Amino acid sequence: MKWTRDFGLTMRMALTSFLLLIVYLIFLGVLSALGFSFGFLLLAAAVMAFAQYFFSDKLVLWSTGTRLVEEDEYPELHRMIESLAAKADLPKPKIGIMASPVPNAFATGRGPKSAVVAVTDSIMRTLNREELEAVLAHEMSHVKNRDMLTLTMASFISMLAFLIMRNWFFIGLFNNRDNNMGALILVYIVSILVWIVSTLLTRALSRYREFAADRGSAALTDNPRALISALQKISGRMDYVPAEKKQEVEGANAFFIIPALSGNTLMELFSTHPSLEKRVAALEELATGIR
User: Nearest CA to 141 among 154, 150, 153, 128?
Assistant: First the structure.
C-alpha cells in the first residue's frame, strides 16, 4: 500500500480548518467593532502558542517521566523506528521510554528534525512485534504530517478566547473606561461562544488527524490488521489499569495513540481521538482493499 491521501479525509480537514478561520475572523471583527483593545491578550496568546510549539515536547517528556534511550539499551526498538523512518523518508527521531502500566505510545516535537517517539514499557510487553511496529508507524505518521504545528496553529484563537473568559473583569478595568458594561458583557459572551466552537472544531481536526495517522501506519507497514489488533489490545488492557495510574499520565492524553481516560458519548465531541469502533472500521476498509 502506497502512502496516498484519503481525499474525503483531506476535504474534511480542509473544511474544518476553513471554518476555524471564519470563526477567528468573526471573533477579531467583533472585538474590533466594539473598540476592544486586545493587543496585550493577542500577544499573550501568541506567547502561549510559541511556548506550546517550541517547548511542549520537553514538557511532555518531563511530565511523563519519559527518558531518551540509546540504541544499546533497546536495539530492536531503535531498528524498528529506523526502518520506519527510512520508509517515511524522515530523519530518525529520538526514542523515549516511559515507565507506566498504561500501555501507550506518543510522538512529540515541532518537526521531523526534533521529533521524539516514545513508548511505555508496558506496551512492549503487551504487543507482539507486528503490533508494536504498527503503533510506531502511527506515531511516525504524526511526525510526517507535522500534526504538532497544525494543531498549535488551530488552537491559537481558542487560547485568546479562553484568556478573555478567564480575565474578563480585569480586562474590563482597562478597556471599559466609558463604563460601557453592556459591551464588556457582549465581549464575554462572544468569547465563550468562540471558545466552545473553536474547541469543538480543533478537537474535530485532531480526530481527523488520528484517522490520517492510522492510514499512514497502514501505508508504512502494509498491515492495517496489525494496528487493529494493537488498538484492541491497548484498549482492553486499559480496563485493568488502576484509575490513579491513568490520572498520572492524564497530561499526555492528547498525545497518546489511545487516550488513557475517555468520556461518555456526549464528551466524544470534545475528544481528541475518534472512538475505537470508528478507527477499526476505517482500518478494516483499508485491509479489505489490500487483500
Answer: 150
Q: Is 116 helix (H, G, I), strand (E, B) or coil?
A: strand
Cα separation, 1 vs 278, whole angstroms: 21
Q: Which are the contacts of 96, defined by CB distance < 8 A and separation ≥ 6?
A: 61, 66, 67, 68, 69, 116, 117, 118, 119
Is 139 an active-site residue? yes
**Catalytic member of 131, 133, 139, 210:** 139
Q: Which long-range contacts (CB under 8 A, 24 or more apart) does 175-184 make?
A: 175/35, 175/36, 175/37, 183/34, 183/35, 183/36
pLDDT tens profile 225-258: 999 999 999 999 988 898 888 888 877 788 899 9
DSSP conformation class of 256? B
- Torsion from C-alpha of 286, 2, 95, 234, nearest 10 degrees: 10
- The candidate with the shortest Cα–Cα distance to 175, out of 193, 192, 25, 167, is 167
| Strands 105-108, 116-120: pairing kind | antiparallel
